[in-house]
Amino acid sequence: MLEIIVLTIFIATIVNLVLTRFHIPTIIGYIATGAIITYFFQLSSATHSKELETIAEFGIVFLMFTIGLEFSIRHLMEMRKEVFLYGGLQVGLSMFIFYLIGFYHFEMLAKESIIVAAALSLSSTAIVLKILNSNRDIDKEYGKRSLGILIFQDIMVVPILLMISIFSTDGVSLGSLLFSTLVDAVVLFLLLWGFGKYILDPFLSEVVKSNLDEIFIGSILFLVVGSSILAHNLGFSYSLGAFIAGMIISETHYKHQVEADLIPFRDLLLGVFFISVGMQIDFSIVVDKFGMILSLLLLFTIVKISIIFLLLYKKAGKRVALKTSLALFQLGEFGLVIFELANSSNLIEPTISQILTATIILSMILTPFVLRKISSVVDMILGDELPTDGQLVKQSRLKDHIIVLGYGRLGRKICSKLDSYGAKYIAIESNYHNVKEAQKEGKSVIFGNAGKRSILESVNIHQAASVIIAMENSERLHLIGDILLKIAPTARVIIKVNKFQERELLQVEFPNYEIVVGVEQMAQGMVDAMMQCSISHIYTD
Predict the structure, then answer these.
(1) Number of domain units in the chain
(2) How far apart, in whole angstroms, are the C-alpha atoms of residue 251 and residue 247?
(3) Which domain holds residue 59?
(4) What's the order of all strands across the beta sheet hosting 514-517?
(5) So where does this one cross the membrane (predicted)?
(6) Same domain, residue pair 409 and 357
(7) What is the pLDDT of residues 35-55, one digit of tens each?
């Protein structure tokens, strides 16, 4: 067994090192690792997955706990429309359509159809939020709407897990089962809430006073695992107890430290869970049914994209609606959890579970590639919307001006600074909502794709005093830099990056560009503030 563990760790490391070069999430690497060790080393999934099952399940426990930590009532109220209206409609309509497809077209049992519909209605919170944060798209309109829908999906995981527990109980009437479940749920919540209200704060306060990190981490692990075991003993899943514990701790002062300390445990145990999922992939079924898997993926993608697009089209516009639907087209990691639990409870046929698990994994593999090119995909589908005649500024009126490429968070700050100096500038932004807001404020911002020659020439780039690339997406930044080098090789171009390593790479690629590191700006600001205080101190003395 030790040899298998060592081999698994080695393969997982190598696979993920390769996949990260292609920006494929580590989740896929762990699943691939499980599949590789099972297929090539003839390991019986029935034998070895049982040994991993308990540990693997606690990966989901820690995931649900961290979701509970983020479950803030205040945050929900701020995003109530995105969460409860759009999120509720997306999950409800998706479940309804997938249920009809499963029940009538594939002639599945009612319980089976409900479980499959619930799993397919969810998207990948782990992958989508990670990429939206790294791309800095989380603050864009489509990012906020995606986040709202994902929050509702995460909330729905709890009742879905409860539903599976109810379905797996035989020989009891539905009414008595619901009543006993409700009583047990109230008891669980009151016990954990009472502990959180009267014991948790003074307990954690004493732990923190010890100034021992290992005691603090051990205490949190006790709370998470203890809550999970309590929930399990009352007939619920381990995950539900962890979720409630996370909600309770989120109300304390220790929320952020708890989250930071538990992330390594969560990620490690999640890795074990996804390895166990990979170990249960039956390659003979996948190869035999590969055509069906691709067809199902296409069907599920069309259904989810259509529902989200139609929900958002009127209020958000077609570009935001399409971006949001493309961001959430995939099937998520909780679908794997649901099929795993349903399969172990004999609520779904193993062959169906295998086919749907393979479909989920394939959709997750495709997600990073779609999200990283989402603007290009939308442009390709809807066409690149050029500025109207009223938005374009005549070339004859533009000379010795500054061109700002991008009007996101950084672009706004740059334009505000240029306004304060009375500088003549024009900004180009591809987010229509940002452009409308800027124009309402009287800013000189036009709508367009800064990577298009026609847009750059329309603002007379050849007569510009300088060009500032105000984009924080590294891939986009390189692309724009290349285009400027071809269109206006003599232009004075200024780029801001976050790390010195990025500057070194860009200096090789664009030796004539001025590249500013964000750390230097911060350091200069701190020194200026210190000097100002020192001078003030000298004169007051």
Answers:
(1) 2
(2) 7
(3) 2-380
(4) 445-447, 425-429, 402-405, 466-469, 493-497, 514-517
(5) 27-46, 58-77, 83-102, 114-132, 147-167, 174-195, 215-248, 293-313, 320-339, 351-371
(6) no
(7) 888 777 766 544 445 555 666
Tokens linked to 515 = 């590249």
On whether residue 387 sits in a domain, the answer given is no
Please tell me whether residues 337 and 469 are part of one structural domain: no
Backbone angles phi, psi at 426, to 5 degrees: -145, 135
CB count within 10 Å of CB 502 equals 17
Place of tokens 């969560």: 266
191 neighbors 244 (Cβ within 8 angstroms): no
In residues, how long is the chain? 541
Cβ neighbours of residue 64 under 8 Å, at least 6 residues apart?
157, 158, 239, 240, 242, 243, 246
pLDDT > 90? residue 317: no
Residues 358 and 418 reside in one and the same domain: no
What is the CATH classification number for the domain harbouring 438?
Answer: 3.40.50.720
Residue 342 counted as domain residue = yes
| Tokens 């006993």 belong to residue | 180
One domain, residues 335 and 279: yes
Q: Is there a domain that residue 385 lies in? A: no
Beta bridge partners of 445: 427
- Examine the domain organization and report whether 233 and 138 are in the same domain: yes
319-332 pLDDT, tens per residue?
Answer: 889 999 999 999 98
Three-state SS for 100-141 is: HHHHHHCCCCHHHHHHHHHHHCCCCHHHHHHHHHHCCCCCCH
> Is residue 198 in a domain?
yes
Among 485, 434, 425, which residue's Cα sits nearest to residue 460?
425
What ranges in 24-167 are assigned the alpha helix state H?
26-40, 45-69, 73-78, 80, 88-100, 110-120, 125-134, 141-167
Q: What is the predicted pLDDT for the residue at 524?
A: 54
